[in-house]
Amino acid sequence: MIPVNLNQSLHSWLQRQWYETPAPSPFLTGAEKLFIQAVRARQNAYRQGRKKVDRLPVPVIVVGNLTVGGTGKTPLTLWLADLLKQHGYRPAIISRGYGGEKQSRPLIIGPETKPEEAGDEPVLIARRSGCPVCIHPRRAEAGRTLLAATDCDILIADDGLQHYALARDIEIAVVDGVRGFGNGHCLPAGPLREPPTRLETVDWVILSGTGPEDSIVMSLAGDTAVNLANPEQHRTLDHFAGEKTYAMAGIGHPQRFFDDLRRRGLTVESRAFPDHHAYRREDLAFAGSSQLFMTEKDAVKCRHFANPNHWYIPVQAQLPDAFGEQLLTQLKIKTHGQKTA
After folding, report:
1. What one-character DSSP code corresponds to residue 312?
2. pLDDT band at 6; cut points 50, 70, 90
3. What is the distance between the alpha carbons of residues 167 and 55, in angstroms, rounded to a whole number?
4. How far apart are CA 165 and CA 52, in angstroms?
5. Do residues 248 and 270 touch, judged by C-beta distance below 8 A?
6. What are the residues whose beta carbons fall under 8 Å from the beta carbon of 283, sequence distance 6 or more?
7. Measured between alpha carbons, how far is 266 from 244 in angstroms, rounded to an integer?
């Protein structure tokens, strides 16, 4: 296991290399060439049938991204689940369960499932969406488990863009509208898991935060803080204006969370942690007895040692109505993955 301080230092160094340094070191670009060759060989193996692709008997929507770290996939997944339920579908969600224990068999998330066991995002998605959620590295196995255990009629694969072993009917890629692709290089020289040309093959590209007028932009709305120690206690962010507060985040782009708090008039001292960080009580001690804000994703891992001064801010994705209408129309067109009588 990598020591916490070393892991944070490595994460910070990579973020600087990927998003602040225009030219990666020759050592990293040399390794990048090998990585791209491996990516292309893997893609071709699935396209040519040398690797098996599992098709499930219901439509599958894949939500993913090209970069390492978060771009807003979880809020979009929650938005999609809500949209589908509003239009009569019975969605269920499958995920790898990154950050949790390695599962020998598919695990359906229950009310008592811990984020240490299943990963922070699947636990958050299950609690917020009210949909069945199952995790397993082989997403098709997770899907089959849900089909056998529930009455779901459509699956959303969270973070499955590169999981070619699962056939999909619709692909949606989320791109950070502020940071984009960083230096534009693939791993390890840059943050990309596949070359940017991969976006030419997806059904929709969603820009998170900001983007050109002709793009589909997803914004995140949330102006209420929920107390971790007492979830029945809610406060609008205006309540904390003029008070020195603290904030922490272990997400793909922590600065976005901190900047949003400051735009809302809060004075915050911030601390960033690596994405999917496994929090300990001492990680929160830097705030003392002052008010400490975190994302909902962080909160699922901090609730069991929360203090009355700890708050999280749930957010909801907002997307153009036209996108939802287009997606529903596309689902009706792509009927080959639906169950047959």
Report:
1. E
2. low
3. 5
4. 6
5. yes
6. 248, 273, 277
7. 8
Instruction: Give the SS3 label for residue 169.
Output: coil
Structure tokens at 22: 């225009």
**pTM for the whole thing?**
0.92
Neighbouring CB atoms inside 10 A of 57's CB total 12
Query: Taking a C-beta distance cutoff of 8 angstroms, is the pair 160, 64 a contact?
Result: yes
Tokens of residue 246, six digits = 């603290």
| C-alpha Rg value of the chain to the nearest Å | 20
First CA to last CA across the chain, in angstroms? 50
Least confident of 15-29, 119-133, 166-180: 15-29
Mean predicted confidence (pLDDT) in 323-335: 91
Q: Are strands 267-272 and 244-249 parallel, antiparallel or unpaired?
A: parallel
Model confidence at 311, in pLDDT bands (50, 70, 90)?
Answer: very high
- Residues 6+ positions from 7 with CB-CB distance below 8 Å: 274
For the chain, count helices (H), then strands (E): 9, 15
Residue 299: pLDDT band (50, 70, 90) is very high
Tokens describing residue 141 = 């196995």
Helices 73-86/321-333 angle, 10° precision: 70
Identify the bridge partners of residue 248 per DSSP, sorted by sequence position: 271
80, 63 Cβ separation under 8 angstroms: yes
10 Å Cβ neighbour count for 185? 21
Cα 218 to the center of its chain, rounded Å: 14
| Dihedral over alpha carbons 233, 209, 270, 184 (to 10 degrees) | 150
209-233 pLDDT, tens digit each:
999 999 999 999 999 999 999 999 9
